[in-house]
Design brief:
Number of strands: 5
Shape: globular
Number of domains: 1
Strand order of the largest sheet: 4-1-3-2-5
Strand content: 15-25%
């Protein structure tokens, strides 16, 4: 007997265009892998390349030891979130497997499409404050594995963090 995995995605057209998304990708088996600047820099470079290739701006990211948070916005009508995240996870997963022989990512990812009434600032703040909430940083600005591919460190000044 073969069971088909239920999709947790909405209608595919909802993942296209100039929309804002809050994404969480978990590592396989919750392994704590993002713990060094060298590792995070490799994955950040892949994330930047995937975002540019697929028409997305990564407003904020946070590499936690066992997961990655991204807040991103499509920058054109052809921007496709599913293609972007698939590309990022495929390239980063391949590089990791080539080096270690292990799978990097848990299947799929969590997505939240922002509604008009939701605050971008609240989502960005939530992502950046994750290390403090988890007890791995004294404050958001001190955590070295988060930031913005659009605004750089200015994102903290903007939010008065």
């Amino acid at each position: 007997m073969h069971f088909k995995r239920k999709s947790n995605r909405l209608d595919l057209s909802i993942y296209e265009g100039r929309r804002a998304y809050f994404i969480t990708c978990n590592t396989k088996d919750g392994r704590g892998l993002f713990h060094s600047k060298e590792i995070v820099d490799i994955h950040l470079k892949i994330l930047k390349e995937a975002s540019l290739k697929n028409g997305f701006e990564v407003i904020v990211y946070c590499f936690m030891p066992d997961h990655l948070h991204i807040f991103t916005i499509g920058n054109n009508d052809q921007s496709n979130l599913i293609t972007f995240i698939k590309n990022y996870k495929q390239v980063s997963g391949f590089a990791y497997k080539k080096e270690t022989g292990l799978n990097l990512w848990q299947k799929s990812y969590y997505d939240h499409i922002l509604r008009k009434e939701e605050s971008i600032e609240d989502i960005v703040r939530y992502i950046l404050e994750n290390p403090k909430r988890k007890g791995i940083a004294n404050n958001a600005r001190d955590y070295q594995f988060s930031g913005s591919l659009v605004y750089g460190v200015d994102i903290f000044d903007f939010l008065n963090m």
